[in-house]
Every structure is written in C-alpha cells, then in structure tokens.
C-alpha cells in the first residue's frame, strides 16, 4: 500500500514481492558449497530486493559478513542495529573515513591515496581501522596493479606499526567465472597468490583472503580461500548454467490489468505502430513501463504472464505502460500480471528478461524503479540460526 498521509492508502500499480524464505534457502545452499565463510553482498538495496530485510535474513541463515559499496550503506546497517562484520569497498580517497572506522566497518583500500585517507581518519577518531587491501589480479577495475602493490604493502605495514590500521584482509575480484575452465581464472589465481606472498613478505598477516563472487563459489573451488562474496546467487539466478545448485528465485514482479479493449485486425499499437495486430484481438493495458525498470529494448521479444499464459508485449514499452496482446483470452480488468517470478506457473523468470534485454539479471533487478512497492514474505522454515553446518564439496 502506498501511504499518502492520514488514513488514505492506495494499492500500488506494481509490486515486487520478495520471498525472504528463498533468500534464507539460497544462503544455506550457498554456505553448504564451501568451507569458507559467506559474505552476503547487499549493495544497491540488496540488488533491489530490500537492504535491511535481506541483510537480516541472510545473516540469520548463516552468512557471516555483509558487503556494501559505500559508507552510507554500511552506516545504515549499523544504525539498524546490525553488528555483523561489514566490508565497504568503493570510496573516493578524500572521503572522511571517520564514521565507518568509528562504527567498526572494515574498509577496502586499493591505493596509497586511499590508505593515507583511512590512516589519517583513524588517527582523528582514535580507533584502529580494519583494512582489506585490494589487488587488481586481472579485472583492471578497482585494486592496485602488480606494479603498485609493493608500495601499498609497505605503507600499510608502516601504518600498522603506528597503530593506525590493521590489514585484516587481502582481496581481489574475478573477471570471468561464468564458464568452466576459463584460462583467465588460473592467471588471476596465480596473481592473487603472488600478492598474498608479497603481503606476507612485507610483514602483513591478513587473516581473511577473498577472491570469489557467486560464479567463483559455484564453479571455482580454488577461489574460495577464507571468504566468498555472494551477490546474484543469493537472489536466485544460477550463476553457472553448467552447474545448477538448486537456488530459488526470491522476487516476483507483478502488476494488474487496468484496461482491456477489443481491436480489429490491422490496428497499430503503441508509439510508432511498430506492432500491428495481425487479427482481431484483445489488448490489456499494464501500468508498468521503463520508469519501473521494464527495458525499452525488450519490445518485439518480451512476454508477460496473464490469464494463465505468456502473452507478448505489443509495440514499444513506454515510460509508464505496456500494452499486451492477449489474443482471445478472457482477460479482464483487475487480472493479475506476472512480469517475472519463480517460473512455477510458466511465467517468465528474471533470466528471460535479461536475455530479451541483452543484459544480466543484476541489471534487471537493480533497474526496478522506486514506484514499484516492495512487499516481503517472511521466512517460513525452522532452520534459522542453526549455525554453520556445511557440506564440503
Ligand atoms: C557486486 C560484487 C560482488 C558480487 O558479485 P556476484 O557476481 O553478484 O556474486 C562481489 N564482489 C565485488 C567486489 C562486487 O562488486
């Protein structure tokens, strides 16, 4: 319900229903695949699934750490009373790192400039900063290059001796991992081992080494080390087509029909009339558009589930609406529309949308707009907080 103030509430035109039981299930499944600890990546509003709800659920189900990209996210977790270890990893070097350090949030450091900023802030707040040094082992995104690593290690050790920081972790991020036997994985593993060796030679004693994302967890056991950072797999999409592990989609995106009309053959539909009805048909108007995260590019491919069937989106996706060609189905105003779900009824799943849009499920999830209400289904199973039973594979 959308609260307009006072007594007045209106049902939302579209909602994302997040099944927290699926998040808990996925956490347990993923934890069972490794002897390492699990860091649940809850950046970007937990991939659009709801930040605090997902954070609490995944911790209760066995994740030990939370991962975010900003101090703002990390401090929101602390303000909500979440005391679990948190790593934040994307910062400008001139940020004031004081609030994160004071809140006991671990910080990633990928350059000398960032290290100086963190050490100075630690001095100001009078608390040692817990740091994870980030090596670039082949993604060429964040992280220190092989050339810059020795100086970063040297300065980190100097600041450890001053009591400003402790290097608790050394980490990196994989570039591939979507298919088995990618030779780039071996290169990254070797470069990571080398970075660890240089850190040890420089006097550092990182207790937490981490490299794997979801795909690495499922498909590259050598990348697990002490901690794996799982994002997309928590939310249901299988990270590796060649090694499905039984994850459950957590989000259902649904709306309802707000208007139907019968039109004759030859009727042009939506802007530009890209779609022309081949025969007399019924059109259903669904009040979601690209402002809600329905990519314009799915026109001509995208389908939604109405009246027990998948029906094509007719013509262009507009900002707030799509028109669906439901043929002769007896669809009525008020009928439920599933944009995607767990596929159990034959509705599309998020990976279908990713395929139609030429993107990944991550982008579909994080593109869901602010007008879409979030609703949560609670954890149903009794298996919470059972500790850390693991099946080693
Ligand atoms: C987003 C992110 C992850 C999660 O990746 P998935 O492929 O979604 O599991 C892990 N590590 C880092 C550094 C990230 O930015």
From TrEMBL:
<dbReference type="Pfam" id="PF00842">
    <property type="entry name" value="Ala_racemase_C"/>
</dbReference>
<dbReference type="InterPro" id="IPR000821">
    <property type="entry name" value="Ala_racemase"/>
</dbReference>
<comment type="function">
    <text>Catalyzes the interconversion of L-alanine and D-alanine. May also act on other amino acids.</text>
</comment>
<dbReference type="GO" id="GO:0008784">
    <property type="term" value="F:alanine racemase activity"/>
</dbReference>
<dbReference type="InterPro" id="IPR001608">
    <property type="entry name" value="Ala_racemase_N"/>
</dbReference>
<keyword id="KW-0663">Pyridoxal phosphate</keyword>
<protein>
    <recommendedName>
        <fullName>Alanine racemase</fullName>
        <ecNumber>5.1.1.1</ecNumber>
    </recommendedName>
</protein>
<comment type="pathway">
    <text>Amino-acid biosynthesis; D-alanine biosynthesis; D-alanine from L-alanine: step 1/1.</text>
</comment>
<dbReference type="InterPro" id="IPR029066">
    <property type="entry name" value="PLP-binding_barrel"/>
</dbReference>
<keyword id="KW-0413">Isomerase</keyword>
<feature type="binding site">
    <location>
        <position position="141"/>
    </location>
    <ligand>
        <name>substrate</name>
    </ligand>
</feature>
<feature type="domain" description="Alanine racemase C-terminal">
    <location>
        <begin position="250"/>
        <end position="377"/>
    </location>
</feature>
<dbReference type="InterPro" id="IPR009006">
    <property type="entry name" value="Ala_racemase/Decarboxylase_C"/>
</dbReference>
<feature type="binding site">
    <location>
        <position position="319"/>
    </location>
    <ligand>
        <name>substrate</name>
    </ligand>
</feature>
<feature type="active site" description="Proton acceptor; specific for L-alanine">
    <location>
        <position position="271"/>
    </location>
</feature>
<comment type="similarity">
    <text>Belongs to the alanine racemase family.</text>
</comment>
<feature type="modified residue" description="N6-(pyridoxal phosphate)lysine">
    <location>
        <position position="43"/>
    </location>
</feature>
<dbReference type="InterPro" id="IPR011079">
    <property type="entry name" value="Ala_racemase_C"/>
</dbReference>
<feature type="active site" description="Proton acceptor; specific for D-alanine">
    <location>
        <position position="43"/>
    </location>
</feature>
<dbReference type="Pfam" id="PF01168">
    <property type="entry name" value="Ala_racemase_N"/>
</dbReference>
């Amino acid at each position: 319900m959308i609260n307009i103030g006072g007594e007045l509430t209106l049902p939302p035109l579209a909602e994302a229903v997040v099944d927290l039981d699926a998040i808990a299930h996925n956490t347990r499944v993923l934890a069972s695949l490794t002897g390492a600890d699990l860091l649940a990546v809850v950046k970007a509003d937990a991939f659009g699934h709801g930040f605090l709800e997902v954070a609490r659920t995944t911790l209760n189900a066995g994740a030990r750490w939370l991962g975010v990209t900003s101090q703002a996210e990390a401090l929101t977790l602390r303000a909500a009373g979440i005391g679990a270890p948190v790593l934040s990893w994307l910062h400008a070097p001139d940020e004031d790192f004081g609030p994160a350090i004071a809140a006991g949030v671990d910080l990633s450091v990928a350059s000398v400039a960032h290290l100086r900023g963190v050490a100075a802030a630690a001095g100001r707040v009078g608390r040692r900063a817990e740091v994870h040094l980030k090596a670039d082992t082949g993604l060429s995104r964040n992280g220190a290059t092989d050339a810059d690593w020795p100086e970063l290690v040297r300065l980190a050790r100097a600041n450890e001796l001053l009591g400003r920081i402790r290097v608790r972790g050394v980490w990196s991020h994989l570039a591939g991992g979507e298919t088995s036997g990618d030779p780039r994985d071996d290169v990254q593993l070797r470069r990571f081992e080398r970075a660890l060796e240089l850190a040890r030679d420089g006097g550092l004693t990182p207790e937490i080494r981490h490299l794997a994302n979801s795909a690495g967890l499922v498909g590259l056991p050598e990348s697990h080390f002490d901690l794996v950072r799982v994002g997309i797999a928590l939310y249901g999409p299988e990270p590796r087509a060649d090694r499905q592990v039984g994850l459950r989609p957590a989000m259902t995106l649904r709306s309802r029909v707000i208007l139907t009309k019968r039109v004759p053959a030859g009727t042009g539909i939506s802007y530009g009339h890209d779609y022309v009805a081949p025969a007399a048909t019924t059109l259903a108007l669904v009040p979601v558009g690209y402002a809600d995260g329905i990519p314009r590019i799915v026109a001509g491919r995208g389908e939604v589930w109405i009246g027990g069937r998948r029906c094509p989106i007719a013509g262009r996706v507009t900002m707030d609406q799509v028109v669906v060609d439901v043929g002769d189905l007896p669809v009525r105003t008020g009928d439920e529309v599933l944009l995607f779900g767990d596929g159990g009824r034959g509705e599309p799943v998020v990976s279908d949308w990713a395929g139609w849009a030429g993107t990944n499920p991550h982008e579909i999830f994080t593109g869901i707009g602010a007008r879409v209400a979030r609703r949560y289904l609670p954890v149903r199973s009794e298996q919470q907080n059972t500790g850390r039973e693991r099946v080693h594979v």
